[in-house]
Amino acid sequence: MSANSRAKAPSRRQFLSGAAAVGVGVAAAGTTRAADPDPLITNVQEWAQATGEGVDATPYGLPIQFEKDVVRRNVEWLTADTISSINFTPIHALDGTITPQGCAFERHHSGAIELSKADYRLMINGLVDTPLVFTYEDLERFPRENRVYFCECAANTGMEWAGAQLNGAQFTHGMIHNMEYSGVPLRLLLEEAGVKREGRWVYVEGADASSNGRSIPLEKALDDVLVAFKANGEALRKEHGYPVRLVVPGWEGNMWVKWLRRVEVTGMAIESREETSKYTDTLEDGMSRKWTWVMDAKSVVTAPSPQAPIAHGPGPLVITGLAWSGRGSITGVDVSVDGGKNWTPARLAAPGTDKALTRFYLDYNWDGSEMLLQARAKDSTGYVQPSKAQLREVRGENSIYHNNCIQTWWIKENGEAENVEVS
User: What average pLDDT does range 382-410 have in this prediction?
Assistant: First the structure.
């Protein structure tokens, strides 16, 4: 459907008010005739005939049973080892931008550990004037900040390099979450210890058995990195690094070290396992790029999608999804229903925020025909999200990480969706 034909389509207000005015329903859309009595309205229902649960029934609130399918999931053939593995956020079933902690994807290398606040220690050492050790209570005494950032695994969408494989937005793009973090700028702790003139990097390390560690340039460490102990207003979950984790805005999730125990100021990068043999981008000729920390602009339509098919017939349809950039804020998202031949600007739910998820909507009148649904993001640097073909031209198909390609969903006439590629 062209942009012109979409403009001439009946408006949502006309569609809905028209159906009600003539007293007829649109059967394909599941709308009941206005003249027919609806027992869910006219009859007193079971849930209104007795009192419900009291305030003591759920001391910690959990989702209602009708939302029990909105959970993190893994892929058996991809994540057979659940100790050193990953699961995926159900982005297809969420709206807005803030990810509930209980739904937020988790990644760990040797299992989530139980470390109490009383036993927690953070050491600052290396090229500093005064090596320091902080308790959890010490950290709480520093000036803190609240910041909303996305955390994306570098391998998000990584299985799609060689072709469309995982059928669902949760699985192709679900290695991401977006939360409000509360914590202390790492800069303040480094200033307390006093960084020596020869300091150029920091090496951050976790307290779990894998001792996951990454090198971060000192410039970034002194900029916007947080030592966080709260997410979305409450304590971090165990799987997200309780009681303290690192937040490295806009950079790949492997650098967001959980159960943070040590920050060492160094003169050079440590070149650890996680920044040499892992988390480097292998090119077509076998050479690998390293230091590809930043997550480039990316977007995905979350609904309709394979796990969120269209449940009604032709008529008003809300197309929605998420966009983000590690280099700044999202300034625009375009949506295509014909595989990238034509693009329509989507509506941003709110102005893009630096290094955070942005929700977009396109209110669309669907005529019931097939669609090749895509989204394309643009960020505040002017960068435009590339197609998979454009990425492959530069990087081949040997990589795992940093795949920020345009995603295509084939929407069928029955409303079901499938992960496909377009040539």
Answer: 96
The pairing of beta strand 121-126 with beta strand 260-266: parallel
Interatomic CA distance for residues 241 and 370, integer angstroms: 44
Report cis status (omega within 30 of 0) of the bond before 304.
yes
403 exposed, middle or buried (CB, 10 Å; 0-12, 13-18, 19+)? Answer: buried
For the segment 343-370, the average pLDDT, to the nearest whole number, is 98
CATH class of the domain whose range is 298-420: mainly beta
Residues of the chain within CATH 3.90.420.10 domain(s) are 85-93+103-163+181-289
Joined tokens for residue 15: 């569609």
Give CA–CA dist 106/177, Å, rounded. 9
CA 281 – CA 294 distance, rounded (Å): 12
Phi, psi for residue 325 in degrees, rounded to 5: -150, 135
pLDDT at site 33: 61
Q: Are 353 and 368 in contact (CB under 8 A)?
A: no
Least confident of 52-56, 237-241, 373-377: 52-56
Q: Cα–Cα distance between 151 and 193 in angstroms, integer?
A: 28
Is residue 81 very low, low, confident or very high in pLDDT (cuts 50, 70, 90)? confident
Cα end-to-end span (Å), the chain: 19
Judge whether residue 315 has pLDDT over 50.
yes
Alpha-helical segments (H) within 304-409: 388-395
Residues of CATH 2.60.40.650 domain(s) within the chain? Answer: 298-420
pLDDT of 225 above 80 = yes
Give the Cα separation of 380 and 152 in Å (integer).
19
Per the structure block, which two tokens stand in for 126? Answer: 């290396």
| Domain 85-93+103-163+181-289 fold | Sulfite Oxidase; Chain A, domain 2 (3.90.420)
What pLDDT, on a 0 to 100 scale, did the predictor assign at position 234? 98
Radius of gyration for the alpha carbons in the chain, expressed in angstroms and rounded: 24
β-bridge partners, 305: 308
Q: Buried b / exposed e across 28-42, counting CB within 10 Å, b at 16+?
A: ebebeeeeeeeeeee
Phi, psi of 73 (to 5 degrees): -140, 160
Q: What does 264-325 look like in DSSP terms, one character per residue?
A: EEESS----GGGTTSS-EE-TTS-EE----B---EEEEEESBTTB---S-SEEEEEEEEEE-
